Task: structure prediction
Amino acid sequence: MSAPNKSYDPVEVEAVKPDEVARHRADALAAIAAAASLDELHQVKIAVTGDRAPLALANREIGALPPAARAEAGKRIGEARGAVKTALAQRQSELETERDARVLVEEAVDVTLPWDRAPRGARHPLTTIQERIADIFVAMGYQVVDGPEVEAEWYNFDALNFPPDHPVRDLQDTFFVAGRDAGQGQDPAGTGSGMVLRTHTSPVQARTLLAQGAPVYVVSPGRTYRTDELDATHTPVFSQIEGLAVDEGLTMADLKGTLDHWATAMFGDGVVTRLRPHFFPFTEPSAEVDLQCFVCKGASVGDPDNPCRTCGSEGWIEWGGCGIVNPRVLIACGVDPERYSGFAFGMGVERTLMFLNNVQDMRDMIEGDVRFTLPFGMEI
Amino acid sequence: MRVPYSWLRDYVALPDGTTAFAVADKLTQTGGGKLETIERVGEGLSGPLVVGKVAAIEELTGFKKPIRHCQVVVTAAADGPGSAADPQLIVCGARNFAVGDHVVVALPGAVLPGDFKIAARKTYSRDSNGMICSARELGLGEDHDGIIVLPADSPVGADAIAYLGLDDEVIEFEVTPDRGYTLSLRGIAREAATAFDVPFQDPAGIQTPEADDSGYPVRVEDPAGCDVFVARTVTGIDPRALSPLWMQRRLQMSGMRPISLIVDIANYVMLELGQPIHTYDRQRLSGPIVVRRARAGEVLETLDGGERRLDPADLLITDDSGPIGLAGVMGGASTEIHDGSTEVVVEAAHFQATSIAKTVRRHKLPSEAAKRFERDADPGAAAAAAQRVVDLLVELAGGTAEPGVTVIGAVTRPAALTIPWTYPGRVAGVDYTREEVERRLHQVGCDLEAAGDDDLVVTPPSWRADLRDPNDLAEEVIRLEGFDRLPSTLPKATAGTGYTHAQRIRRRVGTALASAGYVEVLAYPFLGQADLDALGLPENDPRRITVPLANPISEEQPSMRTTLLPGLLAALRRNVGRGTADLALFEQGLVFHPRKDAAPVAPRLTVERRPTDEELASLDAALPRQPRRVAVVLSGLREPAGWWGPGRPAGWQDAIQAARIIADACRVELEISQDQHEPWHPGRCARLAVNGRLVGHAGELHPRVVAELGLPPRTAAMELELDRMIPAEEVLTQAPGISSMPVATQDVALVVDAAVPEHDVEAALREGAGALLESVRLFDVYTGERIGEGRKSLAFALRFRAPDRTLTAEEASQARDSAVELAASRTGAVLRS
Ligand SMILES: [Zn+2]
Result:
């Protein structure tokens, strides 16, 4: 605020004398020190720094001094005002600390009280585990492909080198769409529609080869169906994830490396796979894949004192099937087997979830009980 | 396939100390057979258990049952001529033996299965220093009454555990469908010999006589179904002859029940060589054996007593009387071997696998024989197997082999394949040497011939019909060299582009719903009439047109779902039943709609070449449409009650909000309007649309549906077709310009007819307010006397902002007035004073 423009009056210049300034300064500091509360300090602050405060008044008088005296007086008063300001801030801080110690304690609450006003949700672990697996393969450059669940027999069986009289092509193993004549005349067995609920996700691979040709690197997760009775370890509706790579010069060693990479990415460093000869119509050679137990790494074998629940102390877990794509499949899908070779692999998602997350009963995955699903959250 | 380990060792010179587990484990690695279980027989059995000879029997009387006090010689020395020294005194309750019989004696100190300890004791007032054993007491089975009577040549004093083979192991192998030859000791032994690199003694490697015309007459009318038929005749069989103990024992351990000597021999040879054998009582045969297909109306009583109505595709064994057997599957009752049979015709034939498999399925008649034929039995084993049966009938049943040998057809081997010798290595990614490749193919039984420097002409053996392609041969080399020789290399996939737009959205929708408190359910995708009725769907509702299954899990739900709601509501009810009341569930999945005018059958295309695009299109045209839907159901409280106050019930608003959440995740504009659609409450049902196209419905369920399904009151639901929500092209969000100028806020309250949708009023305000409008937000709805019956007041907060200047109060008011004006003309809204 600008000082009123007054004419020179020697009487009032008293105020800038050193003694006076020192006295005002001491009075102000005493008042500050005496303030017992933040409110009192506020009043003191107005009294010692406001427009009518002695030091403020003195400051206005500097202009009345002869020019030679102004600098010294200005310095003196400035120092006094600075000291007052410092004392105010210090006292303010002291009093606030005192108040915090008292008042904020009174405002204390029980922070352990629940506040679950927004309900929690979760995605099904069968969904998220498929995504996690797909992520691993996408990171390797694979595509994720989908296909229909009601599938033509040709895609589900014929194109995959299942002969027409293969035993699974029967109502005992495979769900068939009821054709128009099911159970009578032309179609006494009821399998005549040429359509099934896909028994594996492999028909998607055939579709991909037919649509894209080679080279391809794809995984297809999804729902599959077989006529198993529902029990603790079987369900007629289940999920698979399958992979297919067709390119020039692919070998079983490449298959093994791919599975090892997947095992490590999913189950931890150093977890490897083991192949055992097996038979599938759509691969030749074919193998079953064992996964080294990611919990005990095989240490539980022959050590009855430290049994392993995950692998049943066998050191290996049966995981899925794999093999070199049968050249007959490539031919049916329009890929030249002289130029290209490929590998394929497939795993049961439920089974993987069972040993990865210790699910005890397959039924828990299909009943939709929220108590089962909630702990899995958004990702697995 | 159950393999007694001691039997297996008859044919393979395994190194001493090789355990059954070591063999089973190795075959699991090489693919010769997959270890299922190893069963230790004679578990809990320990000696002294010896072969004894009954020297004297004293019949004791005066007890509840007849009892014998026997003297049994149990040492070889005591069995000398004229010597009866040191016999053991043993009390025995069985009566099926006589003085001079050889028996099994458990001496004091022996322990029998079941922790049955044998000790010297006094019983029936006599000393008894051991026990004469029955088959059951030794864990040999339940079949025989009384004690075991051993052959007269059994060595007295010998260790009976070794003599009877009581200490053994049985390996159970899983057999893959391509390796039918391992359904035999012969096949497993060959694999074991290869795996351990030791000599193999082929039990089929025996001399067989030349065929002639004097054997039992056989005519094969269907050589495609039966390419080899060997018949031999044995006469003069002693019908009282019993199967030797060792044979019974091996059959038992292999999982077969001993029945009678002739049947046991047939089964034994089948297990040994993998060649199913059928035996006919020659006196019951009339005329020549004829192999042919069944004729319409023919009936056969099989030897399990069942009456089989035959199908013209069934391959039969017949004679003048008509059908006498389902070829390769089961014999008929009329020519069956019986207790008094003395003359036997032995059949060892080879039948086509698929024909047998179909007959088995048609008649639901699995058998050990059929199991082997279905997996391509070895046609080359027929003659040897017939010879083995003849030899055993002569040796064990006192029979005489008739000289006539009937052999119809000839053994064919699988076609030769030409492969570069490097081919297995190329498939494996391993540099096998030529020697390794040739050695392995030889071990499998192939004949090799070099063709030029690079190629091998490989002729598979008669028992390997599965070796049809170069890759089959590659597999043999790779598995026998060991899968552990495969290095682990990672191919470089072609550069990928990650997830598709639609895949990303589907994941985003799931995450968005879960973040909003929904729990995902994956229900079975089946439903039935009752489910659709419960939803109150009208007769002509398209959701009633379903894809039916020929063999559904349950007759109540015979079709594929056309809506996700039944499955979700069932899960909701299950949760409520288990005590969880506050629920918000969602599911993403396919529904199935038959295509109009679809072909009734999806054709079976060729596999010899790539089908044409037209052919492939014909498949997809037959398949049902399978769009992906997403649905939610809610009941109970959406926000729980707590110390903060009461909860908020879930309702129609939440169901519609779920659609908004999904639309957000899809980045599309959701259009919501009033509708009436089953199964929703007619006054609380929202039509959901995108770009004017219907995508689904949401709201509260109809009270009748709620009652019908036993759902909590006011259960709400939303279902929409996700595929219609996903824009064909990815929508790129345009970043908005952010103005830092101050905002001007104007509130308006508008009174409209109760029937006017808020959406319409808000849209009119938005449009009328012009470019300065930043946002409109409804903050209150009021109905009551002060504004009159049938009216409602909607209070909106309008925010205005200019990009480049501070708005004046006049500008903001002007914009508000034009907004109100448009709302008034569009919806009849009146500014509330
Ligand atoms: Zn483990």
Remarks:
- Chain A is about 40% helix and 15% strand.
- Residues 1-11 of chain A have pLDDT under 50 and may be disordered.
- The first helix of chain A runs from residue 18 to 34.
